[in-house]
From TrEMBL:
Coiled coil: none
Limits of the Thioesterase domain: 156-227
Protein name: Acyl-coenzyme A thioesterase THEM4
Keywords recorded for this protein, A-Z: Apoptosis, Cell membrane, Cell projection, Cytoplasm, Fatty acid metabolism, Hydrolase, Lipid metabolism, Membrane, Mitochondrion, Mitochondrion inner membrane, Transit peptide
One GO MF term attached to the UniProt entry: hydrolase activity
Residues in the signal sequence: none
């Protein structure tokens, strides 16, 4: 087996700094800190395209909400001095790890071709178009999500699993930032109103409470103007050791 404990340990050491996301986020966003948002070196990303930046597929509502939160990532003080604002945009790549754990439970083909589920197509607008923002003071994360035509479930509407994916993503990102490495243990979603395909919705998540290894997050999905409630959710994330995850235990 072309794999060694040393390689795993190196990967784990890199990932060990994942909880440094908190300190990363306390610094102003620059292209460098964007790449290291997850505490990973740039070599860990197979491509450096940041999928959370606007592209030609983003519609007017997606752009409006993006500008609304992005404009609060940096505020201009009197005298033109720029300061970090209450929100941080979270960058997003199509691969978190390039070198993790080949040979243990990933064969080489899977290892080289694996992609983050939500960023598995380079074709703008066809599936998950989204951007996440984090507010440290309010311990809140928002996601702006435009649902592409490949996500159809009921005719003309978004598949419930696709909606769940985005809820898992925005609640998971918040739990990760607040608690370090976690996995979803429970996701309890009430689907209130279907989401029209092609529309842009707002996902809001906030910390409910932390109890030992457990982080409880609540979340809702609304229409972009907030007038319609699509889902409400409670989620439980459990802290894990990354070395256990990489070793498959
Ligand atoms: C910026 C990019 C962000 C991207 C975010 C993407 C987010 C995506 C997140 C995911 O999709 S993760 C993948 C889906 N999740 C999994 O595959 C998790 C699989 N399950 C497990 O690995 C284990 O079941 C788990 C680690 C969740 C729990 O294992 P254990 O039960 O051995 O853990 P432990 O015994 O340490 O439990 C800790 C506490 O959690 C409680 N617990 C565990 N699972 C629970 C559950 N399902 N419901 C309620 N409570 C639960 C457990 O009772 C205990 O409570 P107490 O501390 O009060 O005793």
């Amino acid at each position: 087996m072309a794999w060694s404990l040393g390689r795993i340990c190196k990967s784990v050491q890199r990932l060990g700094s994942l909880s440094s996301v908190q300190s990363q986020l306390s610094h102003p966003a620059t292209s460098g800190s964007v790449r290291t948002m997850l505490g990973l070196p740039s070599s860990c990303f197979s491509k450096t395209r940041d999928f959370s930046l606007p592209n030609s597929s983003w519609g007017p509502e997606m752009m409006r909400l993006y500008k609304h939160y992005n404009s609060q990532c940096e505020v201009v003080m009197e005298g033109g001095v720029k300061q970090e604002g209450p929100w941080r945009r979270l960058p997003s790549y199509n691969r978190v790890l390039k070198y993790a754990t080949g040979g243990v439970y990933l064969n080489k083909i899977i290892q080289s071709k694996a992609r983050l589920f939500t960023r598995n197509t380079g074709d703008p607008g066809v599936a998950f178009e989204y951007v996440l923002f984090f507010n440290r003071e309010e311990q809140r994360c928002v996601g702006i999500f435009q649902a592409g035509h490949l996500l159809e479930g009921p005719p003309g509407h978004v598949h419930g699993g696709a909606t769940a994916t985005m809820i898992d993503t925005v609640t998971g990102a918040l739990a990760l930032i607040l608690s370090g490495p976690v996995v979803t243990a429970n996701l309890n979603i009430n689907y209130r109103k279907p989401i029209p395909l092609g529309s842009t919705v707002l996902l809001e998540s906030s910390l409910d409470r932390k109890e030992g290894k457990k982080t409880f997050i609540t979340s809702k999905v609304t229409s972009s103007d907030g007038s319609k409630l699509h889902t409400d959710t409670t989620a439980l994330f459990v802290s894990i050791s990354f070395s256990n995850l990489l070793l498959g235990s």
